[in-house]
């Protein structure tokens, strides 16, 4: 009898809990308001969410039904929230003007409802004007179902969000209008005439003129690593002085979820003396990569596992224009709390090269360089450390051993990090460099290559005279990709990323969409395929179609390109089944990055540069995924159809 | 002390004057009527400009994104319908490249020549509009010591035609208070932009009543001594091709001024400066109401302030 009862109870409990697990509804209420905040010692009106500056952490489990009611209490300002990186029905994506979503009017409430179909580290932010800069951004974490770690290696005792952002004393509106007045309004480290004199002294008048004249003709600045300066960089909303601190106990494993929620900044992230193992990129699990540092583009996320042993570690995220740090501490709670942070010495800022401007005959022209890689004895192991040169190298077939035709390779070397896989076939290049006629004089422009070369072990002895000059006191570092990573330390490269689980769709792309990123710095105009969003036509893709997105950066700034609603597989040289999922890819200046996309989410999806003011200036477009019905001439209905995956989720907005 | 007082009151006066005249011209319908003519004239010659090296990614406005298709044919079917035609959507689109911005510069300079004769020059410039279509207003006021002021106000429609260049057209109204009935209106066409090697350039052609034809050119370039201390060599040239009016200048190169202006950017908005220039003026032509004058040349020393709004 009692046995029967216990059975019944068990079944009852089981049934109850299973339905509870299956249909967990997770609700949040978010109130957007304007409040006075004091971050930098100056009280300023900024946007808060539920009274917090840096909006609160939202937590979900995979499979949850998310219900998020957003109340707009701003005066005279529409608002919106976009769930960055989430797979959801178009109207829930929160981009005004897309999928019939029209923003949230003042004093109105919008109910976002969607099924949580993924796990990982994401974030959310406003997609209305510059509200993101003004404070409307926060972390969003989705744990695997029942919080079971995806792999044993991911099992961590502590779990912290590390949200990086940039705070400015001016509002986004002021910043944008200042940039429009003078695009170099915030450039406070431009080169002066004395830098030119120094260069003449160092390189001679002729070389200096050669170098400078092109920049002058193009009317561009070498120093334009970022458009906006005077930022205070925050970590979880705290300034370096306020020192965000994450506690741990000795022997514990800690998961750090890095989110770059800044408006305009890219960071080089490191924790001195602590190895980080990257386990997730853009919320999507990847095979573990142990690294010492990584560059995180605006809107990207990386999860790392660390095993701290010391009492204290300082987390340092340095903006790539070297204008400051976002700083926090990992602290062993069994030791006494140590003081405040120490501001690290900034690394040298890299100057852009012609190659960053896309002016060199870049890799694409290396096609046809043909067959004789095999005769390029020597380069093998070195190249392995030249990670990063994406698949483009695959087109380096050819490369006639003569190397004399490798002119144009010159400064490229500096950015040759990341060359890996294909280079493997370039066995043996080293001392042959000496025979790279035509390369020599070009080498003069390879200044600043120092440490880069050092990672090209085996190669360095070939060009000692070139590296010496640059490693001198003036510390000039060239090339956007040059993070000044100390020799021997490993910086994460895109090519290191491999999807943890095999990609389901490994089809070759049916077609290619070229997305050329351009800009006119002088007028602060940023474009996709030569057009601003207000004057362009959307990209149109068939539902289920497999396409390649080819991002070609014609400008001299890096653009973190973000696609809403779907993950792209980054063509980083990995096998198609291993390519990592990304929602945002950094397209370095003058470079081409390609991704593959299975268009399996119906709707209108924004595709844009995640540098806020680039997007405001026009660097944005719409990618429409629609069912192709030959009888229908109106794609509107088609677009509005929910994806079959979204059953049970209310498609309609509740105002 | 006395001089500063003088500068102050004169500055104040000129601000008021220029402000007034600017307002009057902002509503001038003549500006609007110029639109169509410039648009149509912007065809072939401008295509050349579009292709200059600075034109990164700036393509002809009629080209469409090129996507290569694996199985061409039915791709486009059913996708052609426009979903973007509602007004709200346009409103959102405008927030990504269609916004209206403005930039205004106000400059006030006190100069003395080699003989110690002073003059006050004021200038206000405003550009307002979208990236493509802007209204450009420029006003100058020059007042030599113990003379009445000379001033001119231009209102031009400014159309962006190439990455670094606007073509402009409009009218200029000018008057010399020292001469009665000297006020005149001229038509203006020209370009404003940034030439290679960072030369800020403004070049105009003028034409008006009494068979007046003239041209002007202004070129300047910044050299950074520090991030805040910036020296700016400049060149200003005025030419008169013909002028049958009563107060005509001699035709030919009527005025040339070249100098170096060095400013200190206290902030990006407040920029005091000093100015050393060499100026040449050809002089007046003999007409019914005036006698010919000799050409004059000499050094000018100035100091002033530039404000950016």
TrEMBL record, chain A:
Residues 32-146, 226-318, 509-627 form the Plastocyanin-like domain. Keywords: Copper, Metal-binding, Oxidoreductase, Signal. Residues 1-23 form the signal peptide. GO terms for molecular function: copper ion binding; oxidoreductase activity. InterPro entries: Cu-oxidase-like_N (IPR011707), Cu-oxidase_2nd (IPR001117), Cu-oxidase_C (IPR011706), Cu-oxidase_fam (IPR045087), Cu_oxidase_CS (IPR033138), Cu_oxidase_Cu_BS (IPR002355), Cupredoxin (IPR008972), CuRO_2_CopA (IPR034282). It comes from the Bacteria. SUPFAM superfamilies: Cupredoxins (SSF49503). Residues 633-655 are annotated as: Disordered. It holds the Pfam family Cu-oxidase_2. PANTHER family: FI03373P-RELATED, MULTI-COPPER OXIDASE. This is Copper oxidase. It comes from Acinetobacter nosocomialis. The lineage of its organism: Bacteria, Pseudomonadati, Pseudomonadota, Gammaproteobacteria, Moraxellales.
UniProtKB/TrEMBL annotation, chain B:
This is Copper resistance protein B. GO terms for biological process: intracellular copper ion homeostasis. Residues 1-26 form the signal peptide. Keywords: Signal. The keyword Manganese does not apply. One of its GO terms (cellular component) is cell outer membrane. InterPro entries: Autotransporte_beta_dom_sf, Cu-R_B_prcur. The lineage of its organism: Bacteria, Pseudomonadati, Pseudomonadota, Gammaproteobacteria, Moraxellales. Transmembrane segments: none annotated. Coiled coil: none annotated. It comes from the Bacteria. One of its GO terms (molecular function) is copper ion binding. Residues 57-84 are annotated as: Disordered. Residues 62-72 have a biased composition (Polar residues). It comes from Acinetobacter seifertii. The keyword Signal applies. It holds the Pfam family CopB.
């Amino acid at each position: 009898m009692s046995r029967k009862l216990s059975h019944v109870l068990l079944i009852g409990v089981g049934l109850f809990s299973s339905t509870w697990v299956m249909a967990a509804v997770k609700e949040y209420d978010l109130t957007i308001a304007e409040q006075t905040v004091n971050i930098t010692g100056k009280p300023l009106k900024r946007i808060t969410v539920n009274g917090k500056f840096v909006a609160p952490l939202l937590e979900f489990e995979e499979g949850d039904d998310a219900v998020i009611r957003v109340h707009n209490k701003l005066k005279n300002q529409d608002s919106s929230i976009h769930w960055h990186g989430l797979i959801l029905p178009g109207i829930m994506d929160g981009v005004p003007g897309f999928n019939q979503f029209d923003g949230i009017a003042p004093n109105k409430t919008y109910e976002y409802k969607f099924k949580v179909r993924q796990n990982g580290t994401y974030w959310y932010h406003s997609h209305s004007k510059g509200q993101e800069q003004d404070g409307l951004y926060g972390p969003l974490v989705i744990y695997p179902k029942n919080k079971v770690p995806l792999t044993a290696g991911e099992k961590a005792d502590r779990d912290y969000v590390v949200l990086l952002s940039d705070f400015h004393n001016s509002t986004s509106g002021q910043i944008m209008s200042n940039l429009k007045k003078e695009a170099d309004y915030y450039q406070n480290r431009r080169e002066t005439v004395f830098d030119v004199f120094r260069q003449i002294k160092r390189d001679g008048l002729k070389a200096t003129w050669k170098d400078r004249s092109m920049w002058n003709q193009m009317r561009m600045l070498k120093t334009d690593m970022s458009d906006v300066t005077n930022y205070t960089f925050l970590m979880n909303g705290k300034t370096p002085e306020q020192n965000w601190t994450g506690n741990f106990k000795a022997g514990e494993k800690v998961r750090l979820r890095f989110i770059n929620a800044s408006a305009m900044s890219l960071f080089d992230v490191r924790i001195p003396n602590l190895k980080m193992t990257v386990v997730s990129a853009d919320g999507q699990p990847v095979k573990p990569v142990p690294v010492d540092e990584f560059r995180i583009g605006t809107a990207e996320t990386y999860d790392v596992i660390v095993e701290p042993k010391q009492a204290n570690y300082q987390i340092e995220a340095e903006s790539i224009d070297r204008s400051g740090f976002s700083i926090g501490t990992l602290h062993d709670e069994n030791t006494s709390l140590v003081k405040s942070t120490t501001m690290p010495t900034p690394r040298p800022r890299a100057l852009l090269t012609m190659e960053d401007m896309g002016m060199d005959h870049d890799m694409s022209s290396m096609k046809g360089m043909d067959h004789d890689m095999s005769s390029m004895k020597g380069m093998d192991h070195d190249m392995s450390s030249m990670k990063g040169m994406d698949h483009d190298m695959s087109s380096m077939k050819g490369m006639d051993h003569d190397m004399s035709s490798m002119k144009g390779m010159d400064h490229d070397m500096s950015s040759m990090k990341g060359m890996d896989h294909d280079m493997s076939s370039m066995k043996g290049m080293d001392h042959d460099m000496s025979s790279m006629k035509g390369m020599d004089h070009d080498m003069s422009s390879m200044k600043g290559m120092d440490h880069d070369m050092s990672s090209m072990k085996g190669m360095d002895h070939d060009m000692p005279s070139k590296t010496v000059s640059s490693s001198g006191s003036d510390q000039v570092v060239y090339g956007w990709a040059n993070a000044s990573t100390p020799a021997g330390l490993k910086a994460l490269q895109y090519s290191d990323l491999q999807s943890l689980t095999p990609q389901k769709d490994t089809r070759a792309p049916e077609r290619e969409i070229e997305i050329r990123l351009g800009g006119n710095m002088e007028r602060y105009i940023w474009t996709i395929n030569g057009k601003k969003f207000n004057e362009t036509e959307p990209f149109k893709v068939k539902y289920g179609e497999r396409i390649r997105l080819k991002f070609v950066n014609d400008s001299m700034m890096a653009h973190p390109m973000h696609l809403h609603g779907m993950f792209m597989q980054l063509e980083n040289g990995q096998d198609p089944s291993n390519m990592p999922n990304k929602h945002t890819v950094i397209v370095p200046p003058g470079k081409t990055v390609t991704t593959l996309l299975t268009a399996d989410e119906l709707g209108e999806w924004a595709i844009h540069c995640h540098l806020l003011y680039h997007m405001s200036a026009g660097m944005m477009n719409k990618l429409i995924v629609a069912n192709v019905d030959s009888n229908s001439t109106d794609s509107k209905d088609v677009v509005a159809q929910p994806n079959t995956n979204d059953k049970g989720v209310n498609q309609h907005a509740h105002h | 002390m006395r001089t500063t007082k003088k500068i102050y009151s004169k500055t104040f006066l000129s601000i008021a004057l220029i402000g007034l005249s600017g307002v009057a011209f902002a509503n001038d319908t003549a500006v609007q009527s110029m639109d169509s003519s410039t648009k149509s004239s912007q065809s072939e010659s401008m295509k050349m400009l579009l292709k200059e090296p600075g034109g990164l990614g700036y393509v002809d406005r009629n080209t469409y994104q090129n996507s290569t298709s694996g199985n061409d044919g039915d791709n486009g079917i059913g996708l052609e319908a426009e979903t973007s035609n509602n007004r709200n959507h346009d409103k959102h689109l405008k927030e990504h490249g269609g916004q209206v911005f403005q930039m205004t510069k106000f400059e006030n300079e006190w100069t003395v020549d080699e003989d110690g004769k002073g003059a006050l020059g004021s200038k206000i410039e405003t550009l307002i509009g979208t990236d493509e279509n802007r209204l450009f207003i420029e006003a100058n006021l020059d007042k030599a010591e113990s003379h009445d002021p000379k001033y001119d106000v231009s209102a031009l429609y400014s159309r962006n035609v190439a990455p670094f260049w606007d073509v402009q057209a409009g009218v200029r109204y000018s008057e010399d208070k020292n001469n009665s009935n000297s006020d005149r209106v001229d038509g203006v066409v020209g370009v404003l932009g940034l030439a290679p090697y960072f030369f800020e350039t403004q070049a105009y052609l003028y034409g008006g009543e009494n068979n007046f034809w003239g041209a002007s050119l202004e070129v300047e370039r910044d050299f950074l001594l520090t991030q805040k201390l910036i020296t700016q060599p400049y060149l200003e040239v005025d030419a008169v091709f013909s002028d049958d009016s009563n107060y005509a200048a001699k035709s030919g190169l009527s005025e040339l001024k070249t100098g170096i202006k060095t400013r200190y950017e206290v902030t990006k908005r407040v920029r005091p400066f000093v100015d050393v220039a060499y100026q040449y003026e050809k002089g007046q032509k003999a007409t019914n109401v005036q006698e010919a004058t000799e050409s004059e040349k000499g050094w000018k020393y100035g100091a002033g302030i530039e404000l950016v709004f």
